[in-house]
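Take a record:
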Amino acid sequence: MIIRPKIRGFLCVTAHPDGCAANVGEQIDYVRRRPALRDGPRKVLVVGASTGYGLSSRIAAAFGSGAGTLGVYFERPPSSDKPASAGWYNSVAFEHCAREEGLYARSVNGDAFSNEIKQQVVETIARDLGAVDLVIYSLASPRRTHPVTGEVHRSVIKPIGEAFTSRTVDIDKGIIHDVTLEPATPGEVEDTVAVMGGDDWEMWIQALMEGGVLAPGAASVAYSYVGPEMTWPMYHHGTIGRAKADLDERARAIDARMKETGGRALVSVNKAVVTQASSAIPVVPLYIALLFRVMKEKGIHEGCVEQAHRLFADRLYGGDALELDAEGRIRLDDWEMRPDVQDEVRRLWDQVTGENLSSLADIDGYREDFLKLFGFGVPGVDYERDIDPAGEFTGPAERVG
């Protein structure tokens, strides 16, 4: 079949295997062009490894440090008449490239929230790696079935206390319009914390420690975001922000436990990038399009792989003392939150309309990044090629789960 992008709302429901492979290859090439990590990780577990920051972290560890990696994700495999999800193709491409380099690369495809998948991962680490020295937690999901209670929690993106009205953009149509978000109920707040907070991360570390597969001195990092004040009523002070506060609190508890064996647990606050998750958040796409223009003009724009490599090379394994903010977090959003950047974004925010959107915002760059998430618009890919979505290059020789 000829695979075309089919966009529904903030999602693309198709993915191109060649485009996903090329996108992964571009990230690998970026890491290869950088100096090898000094004393970098050697055996890495990435929970949420198939897209966004998780995928880029896996790439940075493998091709920047020669690390063996085990990835966990929940992705749709292909069928004879339907492409796989982008995360499936991304992971297949990564494993193919890693194994060509002689690197260990395996994956577990299943519900990372479940006890069964955690146990399967522990057994795989014990058999194949012995223990891991880095755990990246980059899980993004709209729902979670709690492994103890069986209750299904669904996250929402809402303010807390009162409604919030602001502007957002329809990226596909280029239309700016107002959006009003009604306040969350107490139950919705609790559900969002259960899905997006730190409970599952803590369960992962507990399972790894109890299974004896977390190496002494190991590190664990979970990813977060704060953002600018213009988004705070909906984000930082909303349901997502409440979940991120829980993540920070859990990080301190996990860190205290890991320090008993010389390890550490940290939250890294990363910059705004185009991901499947960020595309679903009202207001944020318009902010990102303006931010991209400003940061590109200043020569400080970064995508996921640039952020992941900077986290490893300059922070975790850079050799210098690790600088943390007042909450004990790594701040990889430091360039985004520079006063000169935010002042310019606010100036453009007050001016941007549907008529001047293309000139004031990097709407084209946003669209390009969005399509690349699903393997479309990648230079050098023949999108007219007839492809069997369940044929070539659709699965590694060995797959766990």
